[in-house]
């Protein structure tokens, strides 16, 4: 390995070496998995159905391999280097250079039919910290509303006016509401760029559920000022403390692997990094000039305006000659995750529809090769779900229907392949857990070693139940896309709320029915016990959605420390300023049950 690989991480040759290494690791691993599956399926005579199942398995392999190697590389970098972040994202070194800010920065809050009180609390907290840091003259808040409900618009305008009065003479606050959601969120930001973009150097984009500390915002502004070829800089976004049982379990699992995964991704993506659409900073001139999204031919849902705008804007920015990078470290950049399974599915299906539109963009001229790969992988991420469901159905039918050629897995290679895939799925999470347990301060942040291990075990079961449920949701939705079904950009219910039985049945009856059918076929085929890791989450989708949305169960989780993250143990000042319900409740509980009862 050449010395420049380690000593000059910003050099193009070093980045090329990394990409070649990563391509070699992923393609070799994928080929090995396909070889083992072909051998496993040929335990009997290799039939046409075996070939179809091998093709379906091949579609599921890329993201299994990518997730594994991103996490493994990230963990190796964390273990081997004192400063892995600056190794993969060298622009962060300029954040330490002192000096006053010079740029004019627009803080863009993009909202649509959101709870004005929650949005106002978060924005007030961020503006308050900016004012306290003495950088208020460099920032201007724009509340960019696409709200369509009049009963939401009135308190929304009142919230904006209250912020304008409070920060008058310190930080400018502007409110603009579009009557039509043309172009979705990308159209919302495009409207800002055309009206006010020329007056600012950078824009920090936040969503309705985003919270960023002044330190985090000033840091990325400073990096942009020192690196004029940097077009987009994305922060690593972590989940904020929550009272929702569903969100607590989900973000605990994300916390275990997200940093290592992003670090490993930055290792090979380099200057073609990701943009997730929020908690990021944009250089406005090139963004305005080069990142205008094309209108796709055809009718929605796959034609028209692009729903998933962020990755397209990233590749267009890179095509224009500007770098797109991510800072793979947890540094006071937060979001609030969906509080229920139903809201989680709805958000994911919106991303699914948007990513499927990328087919029309793969032939855009002059894109970097890595950018084309990123667009393709964004599509393939969701195509893996119907392929996995098809593999499952075909295998179940072959085990239960005598007219079909039986599936005879090789008794040695079949179990070996299963173990390898399980190891690839869980090793990154286990390795991160070992890292947490080895660091006393971090271990205490998660509530102690025993609680952390219990949460790890519970999250592993939860994610195993969730995976087949989401795969079927993707499959059904993508089938609907072919017939014009669309989800659009609808308002999200971000606050904690119970899920009614009727709503759960209406949304999840296909999962329940499908799981019951697969379980019955498995019972007929004599492998019912083996099918349980797949069928349990499907059969019990409805009670799972109701239970994990229950406010009472959420309170129980909080009291027991289930799903605890470090920001709950030691909340950063910005989260305390924002007045998150989880932290307010935790403070009341510390004050005593009597105070809590009175507050409720």
Offer a concise description of the structure.
The chain has helices spanning 4-7, 12-41, 48-80, 84-88, 116-132, 150-166, 184-196, 214-226, 245-269, 284-290, 310-319, 341-356, 369-400, 413-437, 440-445, 449-481, 501-525, 528-539, 541-549, 551-560, 566-569, 573-578, 581-591, 593-599; strands spanning 105-111, 139-145, 172-177, 202-207, 210-212, 230-239, 280-283, 323-335. 62% of the residues lie in helices and 9% in strands.
How is the topology of this model organized?
Layout (H helix, E strand, L loop, with lengths): L3 H4 L4 H30 L6 H33 L3 H5 L16 E7 L4 H17 L6 E7 L4 H17 L5 E6 L6 H13 L5 E6 L2 E3 L1 H13 L3 E10 L5 H25 L10 E4 H7 L19 H10 L3 E13 L5 H16 L12 H32 L12 H25 L2 H6 L3 H33 L19 H25 L2 H12 L1 H9 L1 H10 L5 H4 L3 H6 L2 H11 L1 H7 L1
Parallel strand pairs: 1-2, 1-4, 2-3, 6-8
Antiparallel strand pairs: 4-7, 5-8, 6-7
Helix pairs in contact: 2-3, 3-9, 3-13, 3-14, 5-6, 9-14, 9-16, 11-13, 12-16, 13-16, 13-17, 16-18, 17-18, 17-19, 23-24
Based on the model shown, name its key terms.
alpha/beta, 600 residues, disordered C terminus, Spore Coat Polysaccharide Biosynthesis Protein SpsA, Chain A
């Amino acid at each position: 390995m050449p010395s420049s690989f380690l000593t000059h991480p910003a050099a193009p040759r070093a980045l090329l070496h990394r990409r070649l290494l990563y391509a070699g690791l992923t393609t070799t691993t994928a080929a090995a998995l396909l070889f083992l599956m072909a051998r496993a399926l040929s335990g009997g005579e290799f039939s046409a159905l075996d070939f179809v199942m091998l093709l379906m398995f091949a579609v599921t392999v890329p993201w299994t391999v990518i997730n594994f190697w991103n996490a493994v590389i990230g963990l190796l970098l964390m273990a081997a280097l004192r400063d892995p972040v600056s190794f993969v994202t060298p622009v962060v070194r300029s954040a330490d250079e002192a000096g006053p800010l010079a740029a004019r920065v627009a803080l863009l809050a993009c909202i649509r039919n959101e709870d004005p009180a929650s949005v106002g609390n978060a924005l007030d907290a961020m503006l308050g910290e900016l004012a306290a840091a003495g950088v208020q003259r460099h920032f201007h808040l724009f509340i960019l509303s696409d709200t369509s409900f009049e009963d939401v618009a009135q308190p929304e305008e009142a919230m904006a006016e209250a912020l304008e009065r409070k920060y008058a003479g310190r930080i400018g606050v502007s409110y603009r509401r579009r009557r039509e959601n043309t172009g979705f969120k990308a159209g919302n930001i495009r409207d800002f760029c055309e009206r006010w973009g020329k007056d600012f150097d950078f824009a920090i984009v936040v969503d309705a559920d985003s919270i960023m500390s002044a330190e985090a915002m000033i840091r990325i502004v400073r990096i942009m000022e020192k690196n004029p070829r940097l077009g987009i800089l994305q922060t690593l976004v972590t989940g904020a403390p929550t009272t929702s049982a569903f969100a607590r379990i989900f973000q605990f699992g994300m916390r275990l692997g997200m940093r290592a995964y992003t670090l490993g991704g930055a290792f090979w993506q380099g200057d073609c990094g990701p943009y997730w659409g929020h908690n990021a900073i944009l250089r406005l001139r090139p963004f305005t000039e080069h990142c205008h999204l094309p209108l796709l031919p055809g009718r929605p849902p796959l034609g028209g305006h692009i729903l998933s705008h962020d990755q397209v804007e990233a590749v267009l920015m890179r095509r224009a000659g500007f770098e797109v990078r991510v800072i793979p470290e947890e540094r006071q950049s937060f979001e609030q995750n969906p509080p229920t399974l139903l809201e989680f599915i709805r958000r994911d299906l919106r991303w699914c529809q948007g990513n499927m539109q990328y087919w029309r963009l793969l032939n855009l001229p002059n894109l970097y090769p890595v950018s084309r790969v990123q667009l393709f992988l964004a599509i393939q991420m969701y195509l893996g779900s119907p392929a996995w469901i098809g593999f499952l159905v075909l295998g179940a039918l072959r085990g239960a229907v005598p007219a079909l050629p039986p599936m005879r897995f090789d008794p040695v290679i079949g179990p070996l392949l299963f173990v390898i895939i399980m190891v690839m799925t869980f090793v990154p999470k286990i390795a991160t857990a070992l890292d947490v347990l080895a660091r006393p301060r971090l271990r205490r942040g998660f509530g102690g070693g025993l609680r952390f291990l219990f949460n790890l075990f519970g999250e592993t079961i939860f994610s195993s139940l969730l995976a087949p449920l989401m795969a079927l949701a993707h499959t059904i939705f993508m089938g609907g896309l072919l017939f014009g079904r669309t989800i659009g950009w609808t308002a999200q219910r971000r606050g904690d709320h119970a899920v009614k039985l009727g709503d759960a049945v209406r949304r999840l009856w296909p999962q329940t029915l499908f799981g019951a059918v697969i379980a019955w076929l498995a019972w007929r085929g004599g492998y019912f016990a083996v099918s349980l890791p797949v069928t349990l989450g499907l059969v019990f989708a409805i009670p799972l959605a109701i239970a994990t949305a229950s406010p009472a169960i959420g309170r129980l989780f909080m009291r027991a420390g289930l799903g605890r993250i470090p920001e709950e143990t030691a909340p950063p000042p910005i989260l305390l300023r924002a007045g998150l319900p989880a932290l307010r409740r935790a403070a009341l509980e510390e004050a005593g049950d009597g105070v809590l009862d009175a507050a409720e």
